[in-house]
User: Which sequence fits this backbone?
């Protein structure tokens, strides 16, 4: 092995250069190129009886027939965040959650499958497609997947998914029970029972996917199903105070920032309930996961609900009636403006003249009128709750900016929530204030877990473990408790398997945290992976030693990881900085997504670095 500092050759068994004394790089510390292990949703689609469609055609004609269809499949997948891994002559294999972990991957795959079927409905060639979905663990080589060179993904789950597609009817979508469980109640399905699939030992429970529920349960809290609110008194009081000011004409904007699962939506929900008891009208809108697949959707929802008071049952004519009446109250009567709004909201009058403005002028006019309407929105107080701004699409962001700037001095209170990665662009505005929602304290976490586990005396042994692992995040606490509920197994788990269940990482938690990790640049991600192997406490010199190939970048990248709330500075002991994970489950996700072989070589490098570091530490006594 050649020394990286002085380039002298050294025997492979040496850890330090015999010429200059520098530590020698082991294979584990070379710039990484490794695979990952993740839970993902696998998506197979193929054209029914494609051989009949291309019978009698030469290969070129066959390609001309089928290629546009395959392209359409790819488009449907990509718009919902999936990655096409392989295209076959008459179908595709795509993954949701690989190479980039994706929160809600099962749900997005279901949406994509339905969108795909819609795109093929009534096509002129009479082509019909089947889709099969399954969620499970996949080993992948991110570079191979990114480069779309095929291969690069492995695992029994892929094989299983390839069999599920055969169960689907032409034009249908089949999902396994594992995919359905991860989609979190968002799907309407018809049970197809247990199926024996070729090459798979156990029979597999399969469902036909009919449609997505427009009102997915995770979008709404149901009072009856909620555990009592713990903590958050201060934050709730701050929101109530902001409403009291808005009632006096000091409209404000509050940005509630906090990591996934800290309870942003719940706090908003509690506040909304309180507003309703005071008869203050509240409009709730949200940016959607993969918001850019449906740009402007939250703005349209806001206009329909808050401005124009449209009812879901309104047809186009009724909707136009409301638009015209409402705009008239603002003194807007020009036919062009009425047409502009009707077109924007998708209820244009086919008999009337279309708006005459060009696209750029339209947008400017819409934004100007929107601002005017917000500024003159009335004498009674109202609240707009806008959730999950971290998913907001660009076109909506433009409207949001106008909304924020226009509520100053009105009786409207805007309440936003978002995750820390989102930078609210209004810190300079006097009527904007950010509230950071921290994790719950130990007493509140314990009370929450006690409530969640209530009634299950047999869970008492793992109670402390759930508290420890959820570490103040109510969503993680709920997911860990949920993993203990019997999922089809008839036997109640014994104490040993209960502990194993709490120690396992719920796929939902893995996806939420994994998506944060996958958004990092390559260097930060590599560092985080090394930190996960080092352990709960990460002495900076040990990290520097293991990641020597990143010398000069490490401290800056660590700052980035701390800002992203993945790591934090724990303490500084005699000038030595030690870092830790912001949440224990972040370490686990960063650890468990690395392939075993990679972890093993990192463990060896970490052990050597620890030994070298502690053997040169001055005697502390
Ligand atoms: N302070 C709290 N006390 C009790 N349960 C909470 C609290 N905050 C959140 N929860 C519960 O934890 C889960 C996740 O909260 P949620 O508000 O959806 O998180 P976020 O919107 O920050 O991702 C919800 O089921 C919610 O009811
Ligand atoms: Mg939320």
Assistant:
């Amino acid at each position: 092995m050649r020394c990286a500092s002085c380039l002298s050759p050294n025997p492979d068994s040496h850890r330090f250069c015999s010429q200059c004394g520098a530590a020698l790089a082991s294979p584990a510390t070379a710039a990484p190129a490794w695979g990952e292990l993740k839970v993902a949703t696998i998506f197979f689609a193929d054209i029914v009886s494609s051989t009949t469609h291309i019978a009698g055609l030469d290969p070129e004609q066959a390609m001309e027939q089928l290629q546009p269809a395959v392209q359409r499949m790819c488009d449907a997948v990509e718009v919902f965040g999936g990655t096409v891994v392989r295209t076959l002559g008459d179908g595709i294999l795509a993954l949701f959650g690989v190479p980039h972990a994706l929160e809600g991957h099962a749900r997005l795959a279901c949406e994509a499958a339905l969108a795909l079927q819609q795109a093929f409905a009534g096509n002129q060639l009479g082509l019909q497609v089947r889709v099969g979905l399954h969620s499970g663990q996949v080993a992948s080589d991110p570079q191979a997947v990114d480069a779309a060179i095929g291969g690069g993904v492995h695992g029994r789950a892929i094989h299983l998914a390839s069999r599920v597609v055969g169960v689907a009817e032409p034009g249908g979508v089949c999902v396994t029970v594992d995919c359905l469980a991860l989609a979190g109640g968002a799907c309407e399905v018809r049970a197809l029972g247990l199926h024996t699939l070729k090459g798979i030992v156990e029979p597999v429970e399969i469902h036909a996917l009919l449609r997505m529920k427009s009102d997915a349960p995770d979008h709404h809290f149901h009072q009856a199903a909620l555990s009592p609110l713990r903590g958050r008194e201060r934050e709730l009081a701050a929101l109530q105070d902001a409403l009291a000011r808005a009632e006096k004409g000091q409209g404000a904007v509050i940005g509630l920032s906090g990591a996934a699962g800290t309870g942003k939506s719940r706090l908003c929900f509690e506040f909304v309930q309180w507003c309703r008891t005071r008869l203050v009208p509240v409009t709730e809108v949200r940016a959607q996961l993969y918001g850019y697949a449906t740009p402007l959707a939250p703005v349209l929802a806001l206009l329909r609900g808050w401005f124009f008071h449209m009812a879901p049952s309104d047809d186009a004519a009724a909707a136009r009636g409301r638009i015209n009446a409402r705009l008239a109250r603002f003194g807007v009567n020009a036919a062009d403006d009425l047409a502009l709004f009707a077109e924007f909201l998708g209820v244009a009058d086919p008999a009337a003249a279309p708006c005459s403005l060009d696209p750029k002028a339209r947008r400017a006019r819409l934004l100007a009128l929107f601002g005017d309407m917000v500024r003159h929105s009335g004498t009674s107080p109202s609240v707009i709750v806008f959730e999950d701004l971290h998913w907001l699409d660009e076109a909506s962001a433009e409207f949001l900016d106008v909304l924020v700037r226009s509520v100053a001095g009105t009786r409207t209170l805007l309440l936003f929530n978002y995750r820390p990665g989102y930078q609210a662009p209004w810190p300079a505005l006097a009527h904007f204030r950010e509230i950071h929602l921290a994790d719950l304290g130990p007493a509140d976490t314990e009370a929450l877990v006690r409530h969640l586990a209530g009634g299950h005396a047999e869970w008492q042994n793992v109670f402390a473990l759930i508290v420890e692992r959820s570490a103040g995040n109510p969503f993680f606490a709920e997911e860990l408790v949920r993993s203990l509920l019997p999922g089809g197994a008839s036997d109640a788990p014994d104490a040993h398997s209960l502990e194993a269940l709490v120690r396992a990482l719920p796929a939902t938690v893995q996806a939420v945290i994994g998506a944060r990790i996958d958004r990092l640049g390559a260097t930060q991600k590599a560092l985080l992976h090394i930190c996960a192997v080092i352990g709960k406490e990460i002495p900076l010199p040990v990290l520097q030693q293991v990641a020597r190939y990143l010398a000069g970048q490490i401290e800056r990248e660590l700052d980035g990881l701390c800002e992203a709330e993945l790591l934090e500075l724990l303490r500084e002991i005699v000038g030595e900085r030690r870092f830790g994970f912001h949440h224990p489950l972040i370490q686990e996700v960063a650890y468990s997504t690395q392939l075993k072989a990679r972890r093993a070589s990192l463990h060896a490098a970490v052990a050597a670095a620890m030994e070298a570091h502690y053997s040169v530490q001055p005697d502390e006594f």
In short: Residues 1-30 form one domain. DSSP finds 23 helices and 16 strands in the chain. The two ends are 38 Å apart (CA to CA).
